[in-house]
Amino acid sequence: MSLANGRHYLAIPGPSVVPDRVLAAMHRPAPNIYDGDIVEMTRTIFDDLREVARSSAHVALYISNGHGAWEAAIANMFSRGEKALVAATGHFGHGWADGARGMGVDVDLIDFGTSAPVDAGRIEHALAADRHQRIRAVLMTHVDTASTLRNDIAAVRTAMDAAGHPALLAVDAIASLGCEELRFDDWGIDVMVAASQKGLMVPPGLGFVWLSDKALAASGSSDLVTPYWDWKPRTSGTAFYQYFAGTAPTHHLYGLREALTMILREEGLDQVWRHHRALARAVWAAFDVWGRDGDIRLIVADPGARAHAVTAARIGAGGAARLRQWLEANAGVTLGIGLGMASPTDPAYGDFLRVAHMGHVNAHMTLGVLAAMEAGLQALGIPHATGALDAAAAAVAAAARA
Asked: pLDDT value at position 324?
């Protein structure tokens, strides 16, 4: 008998859960796009996008997903044949590198694997070896959504400064913005990309790029940029349509306005960071117990390098795929697939999954997912130790007391 009927829970790392308030804000007639409330509201959105990134930088908004934000950043930072240094810690680091190569950028890739974060010392060494300073920018993820590794952006900035290299620091914050502590100005970021469908709790469709004065000046010589992707009119346009290279994404803007209010004005950004840390620790606590008896483990062994938005795990002998299928059919829960851990044609592909705890998620939602997973492990006879739910509950209780 299936117990999946009812409100389905999508515990994947984007699209994340969209608050009812955001959906309600989007459910309205189309507005006048030439003047009036939508114009004034959008100005507040740009201000709050700076605030949520702890940034004083320029912001460009695109009608796109995260891949579009990648392309916007590449098009404005580089001319054809210029060099990028890419630090990859998973599938999406490689994806950004592939996007740059596809646009004619010469990519030097440092692959740090999927279980350890970026080693800033290797970045410093690579930049110091670039005596002619051909490297135009260093590209890296803050959180790689696939491996769920979290990288130390400030340490990489320090390494770049120690090397005395003028390269831009470009950061993919698609999985981290609105979930993880992130400080654009303090960490010395020059270009940062994000999207609407994860920590910002809005349906897919908006891509964002934050850019420093240095990045804006450097973009003046790019020969890859096209009218649509050019961030200059989007950051300094005199007419409303220039912010979007045409018609504004009106209903997404209404939703984003509501989401930013919830994050910044109601819960508060520091508390948002704290609650994501607490939910992540509850998930980790459950996996730590399950893994005491059986072939179950987290991909990132070091808690200090784990994302607070999403957790990747391995359950051997195809257990991850079987558990995902059981949860979908019997519990009304969808977990994320494993990405970049094994080829889809490799039998080991079924050993990996991801549990998202990003955005509009609270303790009972996360504990409910873990309880459903425990039921699935029991139903499928997958070896695991008992006590995981007690450990997760204790983590939540400790966070609430704090």
From this structure: 98
